[in-house]
Amino acid sequence: MFKISPFTASDLAASEALLDRAFGPGRLSKTSYAVRDGGAPVAARRFGARDEKGGLGGSSACWPNLIGDGDRPALLLGPVGIEPALQGRGIGAALIGETLTRAAVLGFRLVLLVGDPAYYVRFGFLPVPADTVIMPGERTERLQYYELVPGALAEANGPIRRWQHGPSPRPATGSPTSGRLSSAAGGYTP
Ligand SMILES: CC(C)(COP(=O)(O)OP(=O)(O)OC[C@H]1O[C@@H](n2cnc3c(N)ncnc32)[C@H](O)[C@@H]1OP(=O)(O)O)[C@@H](O)C(=O)NCCC(=O)NCCS
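Above: inputs. Below: predicted complex with coenzyme A.
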């Protein structure tokens, strides 16, 4: 039985090792990593799936990103990785479900990810149409979106880029909760 809970500092090393086993060597050279953080302490929402003894069976993270010249951040989901021996037991689905719930609570409108469409379609992710959101260096069909607010994709146009620290990105309006964004914290806070 696995339970989903937020990361603690002690999960970081175990998570990195798990992701190496799940994705194999070379994962860090992917474009999706390059747009996540630039060395600055961009805040991430990370979740772990833990067994009764606290062992990490899966992990997920997400990062705020800007799109084109817009100033409203979308959430880039990933990496989501499950310990190879534990794959196929619903742990990935539980982590993704928790992340989407949390993203809505934080006031995000749009979630993006790079992954296998055949897996993510079950959560409602769809491939981004051509000439909308772009992740340079990634195959277009692997870039997918999920609208937390209907019409959110239409607000986004251009390449995904790092969330540069500086002026606080505009909080989402019409969001389901009072989630806010804070550059002072180097990230977003609930
Ligand atoms: C992809 C991943 C996150 C899914 O998590 P998981 O806990 O194993 O998956 P779940 O138990 O939630 O779902 C299992 C279902 O997803 C399917 N599935 C798993 N990975 C898939 C993939 N890459 N493409 C299509 N379907 C996939 C399984 O066949 C299974 O289907 P079923 O419900 O019809 O039997 C996990 O397998 C993983 O970390 N894989 C290694 C990394 C990887 O290959 N990533 C590529 C996808 S981004």
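The chain has one domain: 3-166.
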